[in-house]
C-alpha cells in the first residue's frame, strides 16, 4: 500500500491536472489548493503574452497555499519557463517531451519543484534520472491528450518497481474520480492521484455548462481514444474524448490527412481575452464563453466520467475523496482482512 496522506510537503496526495487552454483557471486552482491539494494552472501558449503573470497574480489573490503551472513541452515554452521561475511558482508540471537534468536544476535553483507526467516506464526512468521531484504516471484511461499505451493497473506497479531506488513519489493519473480509485492507486504503489475530469465537473472550472452536463450524464462506455481532433496543431497526439453524435458520424469518415485547418467554422470562443473562431475538428474545448454548435466540439474526458454523478465544489471533491478512501481502508478492507484471518478457507475462490 502506498503512502497515505500528503506528498511534496502538501496536506494531501491529491493533484488537480492542468486543463486547457483555460479550463483550470485561478478559481479552480485556488479552490483545490485551499482544500489541501495541488492545483495546477495550464500555461497558455506563448501567443498570449502577459497572461501567465495575470493568472498567477489572480491565483495568489485567492489562496496563500502552494500551487503549480503545467507546461506542454511539445510547444514553444522557453519564455513560459522563465516567467514561471520569475514568478516563483512552487510547482512546475511538464508533459509530452524530455526535461533533462539541466532543466530540472534550473527549476530547482528558482525554488520550483518539478513533476513530470509520463506514459511509460522508460519515460519515468529518464525523468527520475534527471532529478525530478515526482512522477505522474498517466494511464490510457485518462481524458485529454494521452501519451502512453498502457492502463494504470499495469503502468503504476511497473513504474513504482522501476523507480524503487530513486525515492520519489509516483502519482497515478487516469480514470480516478473517487475514493475507490484513490485506494486502488495506493494499493498499486502510488503515493497520490492526479485528477482532471473530476475537477472539470466543478463550479470553479471554466468549462462550458453543457460540457459539465455531458460528463455527469456519461456512462461506462461514453469515451473513446482517438486522433480526430486538433491534429493540425498537435500532430500525432492521441486523446480520449466523450462520444457524441458528431464524433460517431465523423470518426470513420475523416481522411487520414484531414485536420481542423480550413474546415467550416462551427462556433467561437474567448480565450485569455481573445475571441477566436472554432473550426470543425478543432482541439479546443468549449469554455464558459463558447457560442455556436457546442455539441459538435471536442470534450476531453476520462473513463472515470461514468462515476461522476453531479457537479460538486472542488473542496467537496477533495474532502469526499479523502473520506471515502478512509472508510474503505478502515472499514471495508480492514473487515475483509479480519474475515480472512479468522476464516481463510471461506474467502478463497
TrEMBL record:
<dbReference type="GO" id="GO:0016491">
    <property type="term" value="F:oxidoreductase activity"/>
</dbReference>
<dbReference type="GO" id="GO:0046686">
    <property type="term" value="P:response to cadmium ion"/>
</dbReference>
<keyword id="KW-0285">Flavoprotein</keyword>
<keyword id="KW-0560">Oxidoreductase</keyword>
<dbReference type="Pfam" id="PF03060">
    <property type="entry name" value="NMO"/>
</dbReference>
<keyword id="KW-0288">FMN</keyword>
<dbReference type="InterPro" id="IPR013785">
    <property type="entry name" value="Aldolase_TIM"/>
</dbReference>
<protein>
    <recommendedName>
        <fullName>Nitronate monooxygenase domain-containing protein</fullName>
    </recommendedName>
</protein>
<dbReference type="GO" id="GO:0018580">
    <property type="term" value="F:nitronate monooxygenase activity"/>
</dbReference>
<dbReference type="GO" id="GO:0009610">
    <property type="term" value="P:response to symbiotic fungus"/>
</dbReference>
<dbReference type="InterPro" id="IPR004136">
    <property type="entry name" value="NMO"/>
</dbReference>
Amino acid at each position: 500500500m502506498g503512502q497515505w496522506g500528503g506528498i511534496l510537503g502538501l496536506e494531501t496526495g491529491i493533484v488537480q491536472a492542468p486543463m486547457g487552454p483555460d479550463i483550470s483557471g485561478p478559481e479552480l486552482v485556488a479552490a483545490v489548493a485551499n482544500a489541501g491539494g495541488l492545483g495546477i494552472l495550464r500555461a497558455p501558449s506563448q501567443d498570449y503574452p502577459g497572461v501567465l503573470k495575470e493568472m498567477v497574480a489572480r491565483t495568489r489573490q485567492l489562496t496563500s497555499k502552494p500551487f503549480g503551472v503545467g507546461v506542454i513541452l511539445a510547444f514553444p515554452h522557453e519564455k513560459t519557463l522563465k516567467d514561471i521561475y520569475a514568478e516563483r511558482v512552487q510547482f512546475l508540471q511538464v508533459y509530452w517531451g524530455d526535461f533533462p537534468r539541466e532543466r530540472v536544476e534550473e527549476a530547482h535553483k528558482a525554488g520550483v519543484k518539478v513533476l513530470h507526467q509520463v506514459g511509460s516506464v522508460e519515460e519515468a526512468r529518464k525523468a527520475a534520472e534527471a532529478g525530478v521531484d515526482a512522477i505522474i504516471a498517466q494511464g490510457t484511461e485518462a481524458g485529454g491528450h494521452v501519451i502512453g499505451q498502457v492502463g494504470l493497473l499495469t503502468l503504476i506497479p511497473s513504474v513504482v518497481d522501476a523507480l524503487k531506488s530513486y525515492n520519489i513519489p509516483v502519482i497515478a493519473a487516469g480514470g480516478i474520480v473517487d475514493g475507490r480509485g484513490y485506494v486502488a492507486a495506493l494499493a498499486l504503489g502510488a503515493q497520490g492521484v492526479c485528477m482532471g475530469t473530476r475537477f472539470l465537473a466543478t463550479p470553479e472550472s471554466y468549462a462550458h455548462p453543457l460540457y459539465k452536463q455531458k460528463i455527469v450524464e456519461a456512462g461506462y462506455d461514453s469515451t473513446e481514444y482517438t486522433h480526430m481532433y486538433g491534429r493540425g496543431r498537435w500532430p500525432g497526439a492521441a486523446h480520449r474524448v466523450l462520444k457524441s453524435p458528431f464524433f460517431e458520424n465523423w470518426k470513420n469518415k475523416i481522411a487520414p490527412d484531414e485536420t481542423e485547418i480550413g474546415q467550416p467554422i462551427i462556433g467561437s470562443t474567448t480565450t485569455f481575452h481573445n475571441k477566436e473562431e472554432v473550426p470543425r475538428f478543432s482541439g479546443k474545448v468549449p469554455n464558459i464563453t463558447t457560442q455556436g454548435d457546442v455539441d459538435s466540439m471536442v470534450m476531453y474526458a476520462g473513463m472515470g466520467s461514468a462515476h461522476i454523478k453531479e457537479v460538486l465544489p472542488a473542496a467537496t471533491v477533495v474532502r469526499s475523496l479523502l473520506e471515502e478512501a478512509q472508510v474503505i481502508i478502515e472499514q471495508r478492507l480492514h473487515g475483509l482482512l479480519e474475515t480472512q484471518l479468522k476464516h481463510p478457507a471461506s474467502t478463497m475462490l
